[in-house]
Design a protein that fits this description.
Length: about 475
């Protein structure tokens, strides 16, 4: 299969055009302009709200004018992750894709199918002349990936439809009817750097090649967190020999599991060989721990030089905090029907050490808002005890399942008729904009589904090509039969 054979062609043509447009979160101006021109050039009513969300309306086909208005919704921004040795500018360069068997992949970067494929499906529907549907509102929100600020900034009344189909899910055959709420915590350690102690020997240790992934959907898959792995070695070394920290950088995005990281630290000269030996043992142990999920881990240690280090007290407290802060699954759902679903979690997402401060970002999620509050307070307390300045965002709400949803019933029934099997109706441990929509549009009937994606929020992101056709057929059946 080559790219010219991808089906449905109308969707993949739109996706290819989208991937030529830079659209990092918070910098979607070029994509907004493209969407505005797309709607207006086709004579479709198009508007942009003050936040930058775009809505394009398409009238009903003849005979469908009295059907309820359906909203199709996806987000226009993408997570910008790349391999450390790939030269790529997400503000300028087009995503380069290739076909690998039944998968569409990108060359060394995120693919942008989260949620570019949802946008492409909407644009293909807007561009068509031979589909049957009632009145449509196609909504493209901005900045979903770094705080859902597009959906948060949308005012009531911008959308007018009765039902909403969110096209931002990642497993074909699964229909999502609820999602987790989330909150971010940022801890900042302030300091004035000092000269390295006399007799200090500097070592640089690094880790790369981890799988990474989505901090919500992949948090329960026993994937290593590069930031936390390095924290373990720092804490172990600090307890045995003492150390001074010069650099600790790992992770990039609050919603991605860190895939790589680097630490630079000083130990007493006479302990350097002990530390090297400990590193070799440590690497062997970690590789054994993750021998199933992390098959391409790459560890390295070498001697290096540095002039300035963090003050001893700050260095000690920072290392202790990074060892102590909770990472991964905190609790599973209590209800027996969804006992497999993660309820509450935390992702220790990134750390950056600068000249005067070290900043740590963590992302908490939960389907139960009181549990989210508790998890956020737990993370905050760890960093407060370590003397950091802690700031927490307001976050976003969970989306609660609607028991009487007509749209869910229709979505399930059309799927069964098309494919001869039952879809799974689920909740998801990730943030969807439906949670924010439910606050501003309390009567809006919503579902979320989409084609199968793997490796999202990482350079391993890939799209299972045959599932795009299935989602396309399913969506058109819903629009025809609503």
């Amino acid at each position: 299969m080559n790219k010219n054979e991808l089906k449905p062609a109308c969707v993949f043509e739109q996706f290819a055009r989208i991937n030529e447009i830079p659209r990092p979160s918070k910098r979607e101006e070029k994509m907004i302009e493209y969407l505005k021109n797309f709607g207006k050039s086709r004579g479709l009513a198009t508007k942009v709200d003050e936040t930058g969300n775009v809505l394009i309306c398409k009238p009903a086909t003849p005979g469908m004018e009295n059907k309820p208005t359906i909203i199709l919704q996806s987000h226009m921004d993408m997570v910008c992750e790349k391999l450390v040795d790939v030269d790529f500018d997400f503000d300028r360069d087009a995503i380069q894709t290739y076909v690998d068997g039944e998968w569409l992949c990108a060359k060394g970067t995120t693919l942008g199918a989260d949620d570019g494929i949802g946008c492409a499906i909407e644009l293909a529907i807007l561009d068509s002349n031979d589909l049957v549907h009632g009145p449509l509102e196609c909504v493209f929100t901005r900045d979903e990936e770094t705080g859902l600020t597009g959906a948060e900034g949308m005012k009531a009344g911008f959308m007018t439809g009765d039902m909403l189909i969110n096209l931002d899910s990642e497993d074909e055959g699964q229909i999502f009817v609820s999602c987790a709420g989330g909150r971010n915590t940022t801890a900042t350690f302030h300091y004035e750097r000092e000269d390295a102690p006399k007799g200090a020997f500097f070592l640089k240790a690094s880790l790369k090649g981890l799988v990474g992934g989505h901090s919500g959907d992949d948090i329960n898959k026993k994937r290593a967190n590069a930031l936390k792995i390095l924290a373990r070695f720092l804490y172990q070394t600090q307890e045995r020999y003492g150390l001074c920290l010069a650099q600790y950088n790992a992770g990039k995005l609050h919603n991605a599991i860190p895939r790589d990281g680097v630490i630079v630290f000083a130990v007493p000269e006479d302990k350097k060989e002990n530390v090297r030996a400990d590193w070799n043992v440590f690497v062997s142990e970690v590789e054994e721990e993750y021998h199933v999920t992390e098959k391409t881990m790459q560890f390295n240690m070498e001697s290096t030089d540095a002039e300035k280090v963090l003050p001893q007290a700050v260095s000690t407290r920072l290392v202790q905090a990074m060892q102590a802060v909770d990472n991964g699954v905190f609790a599973m759902c209590q209800d027996e029907a969804v006992a497999w679903l993660v309820e509450t979690s935390n992702n220790v997402a990134s750390i950056v050490t600068g000249e005067k401060e070290a900043k740590v970002t963590c992302s908490q999620r939960s389907n139960v808002m009181s549990a989210l509050d508790n998890q956020a307070a737990t993370i905050k307390a760890v960093f407060q005890l370590a003397g950091a300045e802690v700031v927490q965002g307001e976050g976003y709400p969970a989306w609660k399942m609607r028991a009487d949803s007509k749209l869910t019933a229709l979505t399930v029934e059309t799927y069964k008729q098309l494919f001869g099997k039952e879809p799974k109706v689920l909740g998801i441990h990730a943030g969807l904009e439906c949670g924010l929509f439910s606050e501003k549009y309390p009567n809006l009937d919503m579902v979320s589904f989409g084609p199968t994606l793997r490796g999202v929020h990482s350079p391993d992101e890939r799209l299972l090509i045959p599932t795009v056709q299935m989602v396309w057929d399913h969506l058109l059946a819903i629009l025809k039969n609503v």
